[in-house]
Amino acid sequence: MAGSSEQLLKTVLVAAEEKKAHDVVALNLQGISLIADYFVICHGNSDTQVLSIATEIRKSAELLGKRVRMEGADTARWVLVDMGDVVAHVFHRDEREFYHLERLWSDAKAVEIV
Known about the structure:
The protein is an alpha+beta fold. It has a single domain (2-110), classed as Beta Polymerase, domain 2. It has helices at 2-18, 47-63, 93-99, 101-104, and strands at residues 22-28, 38-44, 69-71, 78-82, 86-92, 109-110. Interacts with ribosomal protein uL14 (rplN). This is Ribosomal silencing factor RsfS. Pfam families: RsfS.
């Protein structure tokens, strides 16, 4: 259901903003990939901030009743928060520059964040 994934996307964006995530980008993967409807990519400047952002995203999604899987929290360099329709990639700044997911998914259109 599109409305459900869009509401989850908004929730994820608000959660990332609340924890002062940097350079937040949302990519619309609908029609491009079966992985998810949206990717959210952002970064923190420290391991602590990365973990804080990812945890806030997880908690916010769980409040919507979403099943959430989180990987990478043990090192907090690249934490993947998989909520089904929306997948958040929370990077440490250095890791984000190295992997540059925005370039890998360049076919996806950026979602305007208001």
